[in-house]
Write a structure and sequence with these properties.
The chain has 221 residues and is of the alpha/beta class. It has helices at residues 15-27, 39-49, 67-78, 93-100, 118-129, 137-144, 157-167, 172-179, 183-196, 207-219; strands at residues 6-11, 30-36, 53-56, 83-88, 107-111, 133-135. It is elongated and about 60 Å long. Residues 148-221 form the HTH luxR-type domain.
Length: 221
């Protein structure tokens, strides 16, 4: 069977990986009509080009947590006819569930390290663009378990270190001094902790206190 011509928007913050994938997909008959390095760029590209499918990495600037998959959920809500293939190193169960909540047709979620050949990726793109579903077995396993992993386990080592110091009562300035990093770097880690713990800026309660309470509850500290 001859696969149809696919128009693709590619969202990947690594320039080297992004350029490599554009070249590989082009050689396989896919037209990458736009690339994006951030979630806003992805949303704009999909709105402008209305591709057959968007290939989305989960972790994108500025916090490198879940900006990409959040954008994928938004694309799904706005333009259901655009297929979504999440292509990442990470499994974000809660957001994967939200992505699939409206139905699995036209949705894929593959882990980068488990795709051995370009032909596998291209095949997945065609299946998703044609309304099919492609899910890595690891993603399915996590979803079946209900995403029971503790939120604290989603933190990077540095984010956990920052949160531990927050729990000890340190300010951002104090944490920056202790870790010998800039205060701006600490602010970014704190923002990532808030995001992973689901603490929105609109919360009336102190997010810092709630993050520490969640940390203590999950670690028994």
């Amino acid at each position: 069977m001859i696969n149809r011509h696919l128009r693709v928007v590619m969202a990947e913050d690594s320039v080297v990986l992004r350029d490599g994938m554009v070249e590989l997909l082009g050689a396989r008959g896919c037209e990458v009509v736009a690339t994006a390095g951030t979630a806003p760029e992805l949303l704009a590209a999909v709105a402008a080009h209305r591709p057959d499918i968007a290939v989305v990495d989960i972790r994108m600037p500025p916090t490198h947590t879940d900006e990409g998959i959040r954008a994928a959920v938004e694309i799904r809500a706005r333009t259901a006819d655009v297929g979504i293939l999440v292509f990442s190193q990470h499994v974000e169960t809660a957001w994967a569930a939200r992505l699939l909540a409206g139905g699995a047709a036209g949705v894929g979620y593959l882990l980068k390290e488990r795709v051995a050949r370009t032909s596998e990726l291209v095949d997945a793109l065609h299946r998703v663009a044609d309304g099919g579903t492609v899910l890595d077995p690891e993603v399915v396993t996590r979803l079946m378990r209900g995403g029971q992993r503790r939120r604290v386990d989603t933190l990077t080592p540095r984010e956990r270190e920052v949160l531990e110091l927050m729990a000890q009562g340190h300010s951002n300035r104090s944490i920056a001094a202790l870790l010998v990093v800039s205060e701006r770097a600490v602010e970014k880690h704190v923002a990532a902790v808030f995001t992973k713990f689901g603490l929105r800026a609109t919360d009336t309660e102190n997010r810092r206190v709630k993050a520490v309470l969640n940390y203590l509850a999950e670690t028994g500290g």
